[in-house]
Amino acid sequence: MNMHVNGENHQFDAGLTIGQLLKQLDLQPDRVVLELNQNILNTTDNINTELHEKDKLEIIQFVGGG
Amino acid sequence: MDPLVIAGRKFNSRLMVGTGKFSSNLAMQSAMESSGCEIVTVALRRVDINNPGDNMLQHIDRERYLLLPNTSGARDAEEAVRLARLARAAGCEPWIKLEVTPDPYYLLPDPIETLKAAIILVKEGFNVLPYMPADPVLARHLEEAGTVTVMPLGAPIGTNRGMRTRDLINIIIEQANVPVVVDAGLGAPSHVAEAMEMGADAVLVNTALADTPNPALMGEAFKKGVEAGRMAYLAGLGPQRAKAQASSPLTGFLREE
Fold it and tell me: Domain range holding B205?
């Protein structure tokens, strides 16, 4: 399926869950915050949430800043 | 030193430190340590999914430092509110350094969008620390909106140019009922000392600590600058005069009159 992740199109297997996606990307769930179709998600509560074709996902983390 | 109180919370340090632009996490940690800071700012950005990099939060002891996420990158109130909500969803306490900087060249804060965002975020229960132009009228509006500090800029972000807005910050300090934190452009210990001597309650520094070969030593230098300025303010500076006033007696000279 085609999804928009962090502003870019990416192909993933259908039925992928958020937890599986984060694992594929080698990201610990507790280091990121997610926005799915412009709704903020608590990552750990949504680890089993399934992703769908054309979903827009933002994966965000803390970085150094002033 | 006398404690700084923001939103009912006590801090022993009046120096806040930004975590951007350090050459390494070790350099950042050494500056945080030597500066004695208790509040550190961080930003939120998209993960580069091809190269996720390091989790920088691993390098910040959350028991010791209050994490103050900023809304940097926001070009309007809506984007700033979105970033603040994301920060809270990421498990941060509801403290937010509000930054709305649509102008990419000078990174000057947008007063109208900053006020709009502040009103929304205060209603949502955030402790809002707004980065703002050194405008005393805006400072009053933000305070009325319920922000827990005002954070006027000394000079544009990252310029190291010092207290270029000194006269306006003086007015803000005179009128404010919330802590005044001078943010941005403070590039030397003498700059932070100047802000603190004037009666600023705190300062926030990033570039000056990151952009030096020795962040640890610079952190200590800024700590001392802040403390010196605060102590001088508390002691009370003598008045400035146009004409000389002798420090030594004007009698008993070894000469014939």
Answer: 4-235
- Whether A36 maps to a domain, the answer reads yes
Residue B84 lies in a domain: yes
Q: Residue A62's closest chain B neighbor by CA? A: B44
The predicted-structure confidence for A8-42, as pLDDT tens digits, reads as follows: 999 988 889 999 999 998 888 888 999 999 999 98
| Interface confidence: ipTM more than 0.90 | yes
Q: Across the interface, which of B47, B72, B90 has its CB nearest the CB of A6?
A: B47
Catalytic annotation on B97? yes
Is residue B240 in some structural domain?
Answer: no
Contact between chains at B47 and A33 (C-beta distance less than 8 A): no
The answer to whether residue B46 neighbours chain A at the CB level (below 8 Å) is yes
Segments in chain B below pLDDT 70:
none
Residue B207 lies in a domain: yes
Out of B46, B49, B57, closest to residue A31 by CB: B57
Inspect the interface and report whether the beta carbons of A64 and B207 lie closer than 8 Å.
no
Cross-chain Cβ contact A62/B42 below 8 Å: yes
- Segments forming the whole domain that contains residue A46: 2-60
**What are the pLDDT digits (tens) for B209-249?**
999 999 999 999 999 999 999 999 999 999 999 999 999 99
Would residue A11 count as lying in a domain? Answer: yes
A9 inside 8 A of chain B by CB: no
The beta-carbon neighbor of A62 closest among B22, B52, B56 is B56
CATH number, residue B94: 3.20.20.70
A65 part of a folded domain: no
DSSP chain B: -PPEEETTEEES--EEEE-TT-SSHHHHHHHHHHHT-SEEEEEEEE--TT-----GGGGS-TTTSEEEEB-TT--SHHHHHHHHHHHHHTT--SEEEE-----TTT----HHHHHHHHHHHHHTT-EEEEEE-S-HHHHHHHHHHT-S-BEEBSSSTT-----TTHHHHHHHHHH-SS-BEEES---SHHHHHHHHHTT-SEEEE-HHHHSSS-HHHHHHHHHHHHHHHHHHHHH-PPPP-SS---SS-SS--SS--
